[in-house]
Input
Amino acid sequence: MSRRTSRTRLSLVRVLALVLAVAGMGWVGARAVGGLVAQAAVPGRSVFDAYVDVTATPSFAFETPEGPAQSSVVLSFVVADPGAPCTPSWGGYYTLDEAGSTLELDRRIAQLRSTGGEVSVSFGGQAGTSLASACTDAGRLHAAYQAVVDRYRPASLDLDVEGAALSDAAGVARRAAAVKAVQDAASSAGAPLPVWLTLPVGRDGLTSEGVHAVRAMLSAGVDLAGVNGMTMDFGVATSASAPLSDTVRTAATALQRQVATAWDAAGRRLSAAQAWNRVGVTVMIGQSDVPTERFTIADANTVAMFASTQGVGRVSMWSLNRDVTCAPPLPTVLTVVQTSCSGVDQRGQSFARALSAGLDTLPASDATATAAPTPDPSPSPDDPATSPYPIWDPYGTYPGGAKVVWHHKVYQARYWTSGVAPDTPTATAWDSPWTLLGPVMPGDTPAPLPTLPTGTYPQWDPATAYVAGDRVQVGDVPYQAKWWSKGQKPGVPVKGGSPWLLVYPQQ
Output
């Protein structure tokens, strides 16, 4: 027996309805997929660096970083010299040359770079007078910025504009023009120079003056790497249930919207991800200027995760000088800001390591920087004629602060020491009586020798026999005998070693 298959007849109306339904599903599906793709946009590169207060006391040894989190630093702050408004100075205390001789800044930068680290330079800050406000001559202002760039070859420039400098409209315009000229010169030389504009922010982002500063930079043609918000001093009371990181994220989100708007107005539309990548977040670690406001290690972990997820272009902190728990005679927890400790109990943890978790720790232009070169196992002898300080002597006694040269490196004694070679391996840097400042630099010449008033010790006499411990002077320079000698003038190199040691005034 056979079965006849029944057939359904489709009307034209049903066919049209089916086509429209499928088309509708396709449109909805496309919208849904498009939304998912937009939400899943890959965040841009996030970089961590940290500010170092160059002129703070005690000095922070940025030249010997503990690890990657401390390897990229923003040296702060270059301002106008109080006596010469168009001359750049560090903090208003040291000209560039004075910082080189007194702070050993050039040498320390060279040392950091030899480890694979890098430096950026920050202009402005809260204290001092900004160059753009003090120097009204456009050509000389450009020259001042250029002098800093030529000397230090920074990976990027940071323009910290706040306080009176932010409300100085003429200075804002001069700064933009000068930085544009510096950036153009760098590009022409084949060394593009990223520029970050650092500004105060609140919960709602930039102030109206801050928005104007951003527009001025973009209008002048400056290729801004981004706008770095100083996410600090909000005037809030923080607690475990109301952490400061919540306010930081709110302010950063508002800043991201303002960045997108500013770039759009300048004719450079940004996607959401691109706008986030032009946002910087700088926190004040530990106790802030507001007694009730504290940024904790837990806050740092939250901000690092937020930055990594959103693709925040830059994360920074004020400052590496402060990244340690306060020690006696100070209490562990404080409500008054300190320049050399955080004011909170870090329990052995580092803000720099927490904030840099998951982020890059070198500027984009130096992301492929190599590690420190392997030391020469048998270095050539140090040359007194090109050594900026006396060559270390195993018989010498060196008070705290004394500087010596050993194996083409400059070291400074942390406390009185004798017989310990400056490059002697130790478990930690603090186990050594010496601090490494950096290499002997091209062009170095011997520093002036220590002196004492004439008559402090007898003048050296070539006819007199001297025994160990005898002290003499050659002019005003004091020496002490290491062993018996006669006729061997102090300060004159001798094969096998001089029988004389310099005497430092502190001894």
